[in-house]
Prior knowledge:
- By secondary structure, the chain is of the alpha+beta class.
- It contains two helices and nine strands; from the N terminus they run E-H-E-E-E-E-E-E-E-E-H.
- The strands form two sheets. The chain has a five-stranded antiparallel sheet with strand order 1-5-6-7-4. It has a four-stranded antiparallel sheet with strand order 2-3-8-9, with no helix packed on it.
- The N and C termini lie close together (6 Å).
Amino acid sequence: MSFRVERRVEFRDTDAAGIAHFSVFFPMMEAAEHDALRHVGLSVMQPMADGSHLTWPRVSASCQYHRPARFEDRLEIEVAVESLGTTSVLYAFRFLRDDELIATGELTAVCCLWTPGEGLEKRPIPDDIRSALQRLS
């Protein structure tokens, strides 16, 4: 099951020709990822009982552009977990306008424990979180 969310191309997202600037696809991917995580009961800053958080720093992001998106376009963003490693998750994104493919992207995030005053430490993805993420496959 992939997750879908809709975003509108805002005026601030466009260049002088009214075309969405390439850079706006990255925050749209991140927002769609956050929405997908919430959909399966998770957060990008998952609280732990001891006050620490599991979090997901990005280690790679890419986007391929197939057609321009313009001011006021409604884009449907599809998010799917492409693969789950021991410590990382690879998300695949598809941007659609009326079923027309606009862009595709990928984002790789690594599971880390963030403890106040101690920083980040890479961790294996816990089984319950892995199960939730698999619902997005």
